[in-house]
Design goal:
single chain, alpha/beta, Peroxisomal Thiolase, Chain A, domain 1, OB fold (Dihydrolipoamide Acetyltransferase, E2P), 2 domains, five-stranded antiparallel β-sheet, 19 strands, about 30% helix, globular
Length: about 525
């Protein structure tokens, strides 16, 4: 790290995080509602800042979109907050000129953060409060018990909606089951092991060893939803508590979204922090932030084992920070499923034997509160950097199916004012790589390029494949519900297996040949 970087002059518009707060509510039917949950996390962040009457200084209040508040949610009608930022502001006695609601997706906190960074660096905003979380455990418990929800508020006004709220799959992909992360990330897993010429068993063992290390960190984190260590054998072994979900992933390799968790942090300009006498050891600066997408539809990507967008995001964030990856001491790679971590590791050339890739414990163990996980990785990164001043931390975000990405670099070392990266030309370049030989109506013989077998709570359901016809045309297809076939696809190698495909009742159906 350069001496110039360490001794850089502090700029008054440099954005700095001065307070963080997290909350875990393990209640079920009697749990906190979303407003109460986020308000308590915000109160913790305000208290952590050490600033008296901070609520009088907050002029930007941003909230990460709740997963239930999106058109694909089955219970959207139970979430009736017309302007959640103002609902939260009223609860906290805050009057903010900027009321911002972020989009759907795992990179939503960075979309929100980037917006606040720009407004602070340009002088439009002085002090921002950002928050996000989920109360899905309580919501589901109440609905299952036949209880009504009082999750509604009409405070007036409309929040500023930012970011991309497009659905992350096509109608054709949804028809064949490619609308659920539990079905799609296993496709990436199989593509990875095919490229590495590994058996399904060897790949499962590798994933289990990787995520056992995440579990170890979660076991020591007081904010973890599952604060217990799981060894690699426990993660890999199928049991009544650890069923296969989407082959080759067991339940313990899947993100857990049914949680009650909330997080918040306070971001302000360097001059505002000086004005409010924020102590130096509370200050953590944002040095780099980048947001970029991979090709939107999975079926149109050149392959299923890479991510040009996450590689570019991280490199851009490092460039903004004027450092290299070797300067990073603390990592948090988005960890909804092992394939997300493995692809990021490969794109960033992180050594295979590096174990400390999370500061929280990861989404399957720390918890995966919908769109808000990286709120928590941000707050925990702040704590780690405060404990280890003059070091750098990097976190990544991922949304839909390795689709929307973000990267963030932070340090206690002072930063310069933030400048938003214009990625429009890079985005066009990535999008231009989409394949042109995909068909929705395949017919004839072909082979399996990647696949999964979907296992529901009541047993095996169907197989999902992405394949190539003999002329190279790509297609997706399902199997029929045939337990003999599905068990065969789990027990035997099916990559490059020969198939025939045709349409039946509007769907593509394949058979092994």
């Amino acid at each position: 790290m350069s001496e110039r970087k360490q001794n850089k002059k502090i700029d008054k518009r440099a954005p700095v995080i001065v307070g963080v707060g997290d909350l875990v509510d393990r209640s079920k039917e009697d749990g906190l509602n979303p407003q109460e949950l986020l308000a308590k996390a915000c109160e913790h962040a305000i208290q952590d800042s050490g600033i008296k009457e901070l609520n009088k200084h907050i002029d930007y209040l941003g909230v990460v979109r709740f997963t239930v508040d999106f058109l694909t949610a089955t219970n959207q009608s139970n979430f009736q907050y017309s302007n959640f930022p103002r609902t939260l502001a009223n609860k906290l006695n805050v009057s903010a000129k900027n009321e911002v609601y972020a989009p759907m997706g795992g990179n939503s906190p960075q979309v929100l953060l980037e917006d606040a960074l720009v407004k602070i660096s340009t002088g439009e905003t002085d002090c921002a409060l950002l928050s996000g979380g989920e109360a899905l455990q309580t919501m589901i418990a109440k609905l299952k018990a036949g209880m009504s929800l009082d999750w509604l508020d009409e405070p007036g006004g409309s929040p500023e909606m930012i970011g991309n709220n497009d659905i992350g799959f096509s109608d054709h992909e949804k028809l064949h089951g490619m609308d659920l992360p539990t079905n799609v990330y296993p496709l990436f897993a199989q593509a990875l092991r095919k490229r590495e010429k590994k058996t399904a068993a060897a790949h499962l063992d590798e994933c289990s060893v990787l995520f056992s290390e995440f579990s170890k960190i979660a076991s020591k984190n007081p904010y973890s939803w599952f604060p217990s260590y799981r060894n690699a054998r426990e993660i890999a072994e199928e049991t009544s508590n650890n069923r296969m979900v989407g082959f080759p992933y067991t339940k313990y390799l899947n993100s857990v979204i049914r949680v009650n968790m909330a997080s918040a942090f306070i971001l302000m300009s360097q001059s505002k922090a000086d004005e409010l006498n924020v102590v130096e050891n509370k200050r953590v600066y944002v040095h780099g932030c980048s947001i970029l997408n991979d090709i939107w539809n999975v079926t149109e990507r050149p392959n299923f084992f890479s991510s040009p967008a996450i590689k570019t995001c991280v490199n851009q964030s490092l460039d903004q920070a004027e450092i290299s990856l070797s300067d990073i001491k603390h990592f948090d790679l988005y960890s909804c499923f092992p394939s997300a971590v493995q692809i990021a590791k490969k794109e960033l050339s992180i050594p295979e034997d590096k174990k400390d890739l999370t500061v929280t414990g990861g989404l399957p163990y720390f918890g995966g509160p919908g769109n808000s996980y990286t709120m928590f990785s941000t707050t925990e990164m702040v704590r780690q950097l405060r404990k280890n001043p003059q070091t750098y931390g990097l976190l990544t975000a991922n949304s839909w199916f390795i689709t929307k990405h973000a990267a963030l670099v932070m340090s206690t070392i002072p930063a310069k004012p933030f400048e938003k990266i214009n990625n429009s030309s890079l985005q066009k370049d990535i999008n231009s790589k989409a394949i042109q030989n995909f068909t929705e109506t395949p017919s004839g013989k072909g082979k399996i390029d990647t696949y999964t077998v979907v296992n529901g709570r009541k047993g095996l359901e169907f197989a999902l494949i992405i394949g190539s016809l003999e002329d190279g045309t790509r297609f997706i297809a399902n199997s029929e519900k045939d337990e003999i076939l599905l068990n065969n696809m789990i027990k035997n190698e099916m990559l490059d297996a020969k198939v025939s495909v045709s349409q039946k009742q509007g769907k593509n159906i394949f058979n092994l040949i």
